[in-house]
Amino acid sequence: MCKSFEMFELKDEFIESLDDEDKLEKLKDENLNEDFMEYVLNSSNIKIDMKVSLIKTKINNHSDINTLRQYISSILEIADLSSVWDRRQPLLDNEYKERIGQALINSGYVRSCKDKDGKRIMLAKRLRNTTVDKHLL
Fold first, then answer.
1. Cβ atoms 105, 89 nearer than 8 A
2. Cβ proximity of 101 and 68 under 8 Å
C-alpha cells in the first residue's frame, strides 16, 4: 500500500492505523516513497516526533539532498536546518533539531561545530561544492 500510496483511497485511516499500532516508525526506507512521505509530513494527525523519526530513516538511508531538504523544510520545528545547504550554520536548539542534526552528522551530510550559542551544523567539506537544485523544491 505504501508503494502505490498515491492511488490508495483510505490514506488517513491507513496512516492512523499504522501510527496507533506503532508500526509507522518501523517502516523500511523502501516503503517511504515520496507520495507517502509528503502525505505523512503534512498530516496534522501525526506527531512531530514520528515525522522526525521518518526523516531520520530517509537520512540514514542516504536519500538525495534535495529530497531531504524538502522533507526537513516541511516541519516547522526543524525547518531552519535546511539552511545548511545554503552554507549557513543552523543552531541545534531543540530536541528535534538535535536528532535530525545528529543523523545528518552520522550520515556524512554535515559536520558539527560549536560556538557560544551551542552546537551547530555545517556542510561537510566533501559537499561544499555541491549545489542544491532549487528548482526541484
1. no
2. no
Q: Are residues 67 and 33 in contact, defined by beta-carbon separation less than 8 angstroms?
A: no
- On whether the CB atoms of residues 78 and 72 are closer than 8 A, the answer is yes
* pLDDT band at residue 130 under the 50/70/90 scheme: low
Residue 3 phi/psi, 5-degree rounding, is: -70, -30
Q: In Å, what is the CA distance from 38 to each residue of 19, 60, 73, 76, 107?
A: 16, 18, 11, 14, 22
Torsion of CA 44, 46, 50, 51, to 10 degrees: -30
130 closest CA partner among 69, 65, 68: 65
Read off the DSSP letter of residue 75.
S
pLDDT digits (tens, 9 = 90+) for 92-128: 999 999 999 999 999 999 999 998 999 999 998 766 5
